[in-house]
Amino acid sequence: MQCNQPKRIGIKAAGYSVPPHIRYNDDPIFQQIITTRNAQGVAEVDLFTGLKDRRYLQEGEHLETLMIEAARQAIQRANLEVKNIDRLYGYASVPEFYTPNGLYAVHNGLGLSEYTMVIPINNEFSTFLLSVIEACNAIIANCSKHALIVCGTNWTKYMDYTQGHALSLGDGAGAAVIGDGADFALVDYATQTLSGQYGAMTMQARDGLLPTYKITEDEGIHSFQVSAMQGLPDMVLALLKRHGLTGNDIALITHQASRVLMDHWEERIQPKEYIDTLEQFGNLTLASYPVTLAYHYPTIMADYLVLAAVGVGYHQTALLFRR
Questions:
Q1: pTM of the predicted model, to two decimals?
Q2: Domain co-membership, 36 together with 113
Q3: For the chain, is the Cβ count within 10 Å smaller at the N or the C terminus?
Q4: Is residue 252 part of a domain?
Q5: Which domain holds residue 166?
Q6: Is the pLDDT of residue 1 over 60?
Q7: E strands, 194-293, where?
């Protein structure tokens, strides 16, 4: 859907925060991972490659602390004050409570006004992208002036470390300020929902009290190898074609679970810049997009920026920005 806006509404600044604790590939916790193969001869762990360092929260440390720090960075870099923020979007995943979400603790920790609307968006892993769309729509409609988006993940505390995907997870938080006079103005977006794959990837309570993530042996791996691997570049290329653009015009930020996916996406899309933080921070799920954007913000050179997300449900979304 093309965004016909009279102003340059989009991302004004970004910030991030990660824990100081680092988990490496040889960490004993990964020795539990099951390596058996499914009926198609695929072991889940083989899909998660390219990892080096992951940051993780220790017991007694809170995700909201990272989210608040990332938010403060973004507000400062946008040359604004907390009092200028009138909407707060995003999500803390996994939250301490089923409800309310930790985004309310972020509101309190930042000292935001009681009139600042808090809008948690639970749509793993595309929360940041959907929040950008909703924030831009609110500003275009003159219902908001400056919105703050904060996304945080603490999934390392909610992993079944016998599962292959556990190899990739890290903790962290990213934030961005949305407003007029943006460095990256939202131009257009595309989205697709393949709800027939509902249940293929889930976070839920299983054998213990804590919820854990699971990719089902057949449907989940199919989502990874087919829907995500092929569907995401198809969507991005169609979005670019609508505007007479090619991969060579863009800097690209995608979901960052594995080099298996990312190398394929790079080959298909051929971006001028493919930006990631996989080696530095691991798979930050919903926080990967704002963290990677903030980490590389000063060095992005392309005229256009594309954020492309895949997510459970199954769905995928891509946003196109112009510098």
A1: 0.94
A2: yes
A3: N
A4: yes
A5: 10-182
A6: no
A7: 201-205, 211-215, 250-254, 273-274
